[in-house]
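Researcher: Next entry: Replication protein A subunit (Bactrocera latifrons).
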Amino acid sequence: MTGIAPLSTGVIERIMRGEEVDKPVLQILGTKKITGGETDRLRLLISDGKFINSYSMLATQLNHLHAEGKLSEYTIVRVDKYITSVVNGKDAGKRVLIILELSVLNPGTEVGKKIGTPVSYTEEAAAQSKASTNNSSTATKPAKKADTKPSLYNNNNNNTLNQSLTAGLTHPISSLSPYQNKWVIKARVTAKGPMRTWSNAKGEGKLFSMDLMDESGEIRATAFREQAEKYYDIIEVDHVYYISKCQLKPANKQFTTLKNDYEMTLTGETQIQACEEDDNDIPEIKYDLVPISQLANLEARTSVDTIGICKEVGELQTFTSRTTNKEFKKRELTLVDSSNAAVS
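Model: Predicted structure:
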């Protein structure tokens, strides 16, 4: 086994208890594809040599590693960044490990076998174990616990929000679904649209939308009528908030390009609280840059991020919309990048 990276023995127990572990080394013992929505999710069976954990998910941006065969059985990886989430439903109370970044240290073909004699992790199994976790090879720091603060933006009872913050429990955006009703996210507002007026057969009113982001992903949230009036002047772009009790529903891809199968609607029960502690763990914005030379391979109307140099600027043109009869202006730009391609 010369050259095989040693596992961080015992870290699964500590992670499942909510500790923050710095770059644990684990072994993959299996993968399972979970279909549904626009993007498949991957569930991992991982081991630290002492315990096995089946409550582990791979962030969708890492799916390519599985497709490339780099996460085969017995592969040893270093988890460079992760978050955990406590789930509801039939598995209520279970903590799920969501891997955001990892490095492959030894491919499965090189390792060739399961390391140690790990057993499935449960609190009972951990209690029976006499092995000390104090000598683990991975340095740890105590889990952050947010101070309980009164909500700034809701006069309702904030027990769900405050209890979650007191326990240090927040949910990653990528874990949210309409089948959950008790969750709190910690997210940065990356964009906020203007206040608009709508009118249809069901009535009329005002609305605005905002885009939220955390380490795991992003989601669109929309406020209507009273909620729009209540929150529009309060919510600020680039600020971080704790948010709870929104309604989740399948995303209308006609109005959002975010990579999430769901979107939020603020309700009368919604709770929003400003994050006043260190928020450096919440990214400001993410780009998934695509070379200009690859744009032709994408489907029409696909939203992409790209970067380039402006080579040409066209004349300003005016045109009238056929549907609204409104006048608009446009100008064509030509971008080039290091892939030796151009796009207008």
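Model: Note for the record: The chain is about 10% helix and 35% strand.
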